[in-house]
Amino acid sequence: MRILVALGGNALLRRGQRPDAEAQRDNVLAAAASLAKLAVRHELIVTHGNGPQVGVLALESAHDPELSRPYPLDTIGAETQGMIGYWLLQALQNALPGRQVAALVNQTLVSAVDPAFDDPAKFVGQGYEKEEAEKLAARYGWTVKQDGDRWRRVVPSPVPQRVVETRLIRRLVRDGVLTICAGGGGIPVIRNEVGLLQGIEAVVDKDLTAALLAEALEADVFMSLTDVPGVARNFGTPRQEEIARTTPHELRAEHFPAGSMGPKVEAVARFVETTGDMAAIGRLEDAARILEGTAGTIVTPGGTWPPDGMP
Ligand code: ADP
Ligand code: MG
Prior knowledge:
By secondary structure, the chain is of the alpha/beta class.
């Protein structure tokens, strides 16, 4: 089978963990061990989140006295693809001797007239006191909004339309290359007035890009791997119950939070609706068990898995 896996940013940097390189590399080693189990039997494409890492690099850039202005978000997105891509590349090469592995820096096309540009809504970076946030907003041309009792920068999160390097990725996958790509949802770019690719200050949702890429590559399975065992009904209440099997239709009847489970559910529902194939949400460590049907929340058109005759 051809499997596309999206790794949560939180699986690479656990909540509350300091963002030191060593801690992240330990987590990447654990991720690679789990992915290697899939890769020995299947074609594998790996995408990953970058939320926490973008926050760290953006802050460093904002505080660098040598710079006249901080590096733009598209450039920081590329930095995280290089950094996380390198960690995953090496860990997967070590876990799978003899296997060809590639990590790409690559872009995701969005529409220059996406309504998200008129309503930046995705929080990035740290929280500030209101006055400090307004000062930074004036200095760097940021939009800031209230997040709880702090003020944070918000950026547009336009809908991904196409992974620019889709054809290249397809070739690599066909050649048996384990390909790491579309990190952080891909570096957001638009086509400008003269038809040229141009980076923009935005953040693309990694799960939505992953679903789009899985569809374009004709993956049989799309998995979004994170730090919870699956999707739960009544999450965080005493009546919480895990969903083992479901359909896009059933999932869409429920409400999930916009900043976390919402986009994941949207991404898996969309993949299953458009392809009729299987998508799942679950824990990174459970990747192989999810495929067997013994862990995670599995989404198929009919709400059943595994199909008859699957080994
Ligand atoms: P990632 O970095 O993997 O994308 P997110 O934080 O975006 O992680 O999404 C996973 C988180 O979603 C979980 O850690 C959990 O706290 C939260 N969550 C919100 N609603 C639900 C739900 N109904 N079922 C399971 N997890 C949920
Ligand atoms: Mg997320």
